[in-house]
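In this notation, each integer encodes one residue's backbone shape. One such record reads:

___
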Amino acid sequence: MNAIQVKKEFNAPIDQVFELLSKHETYNVAFAPVQVVRVKDATDPARPDGLGSIRRMGFGPIKPIQEQITLLDVNKRIEYKLINNPLIKHHIGIIEFEALSATHTLVKYTIELQAHAPFVSKLILAQLKLAITLGFSKLAKSV
């Protein structure tokens, strides 16, 4: 299985960082110009971007990538999976949160990916690692 991991320290408390990264709209800032929209609310009305919610990503009216939140453990972990994508066999994203102090948080973002064409997996992961690294740097400056 091919995988990447990006680690980033945020100069903010864990609850603030978790709230930021648990909102689908945050990824519009992190991964601009890619657009992210929630197309299905979570089962918990108090946290519409939570467990069971689905987001679509893309550009303008074309948003072919769909991800579903499969685990949400407040201030600890978020997991999602890619759904309905015929090009990808397996894609899981895991975002883990660790309080380093009352005002510093370490975020570890791991993505496992397996495309149907083996050489494609490494190419996609390289692009994702770059995008996440840049996006997290941008978000870290915003908190």
User: Anything to note?
Assistant: The radius of gyration is 15 Å. The chain has three helices and seven strands. The first helix runs from residue 14 to 21.
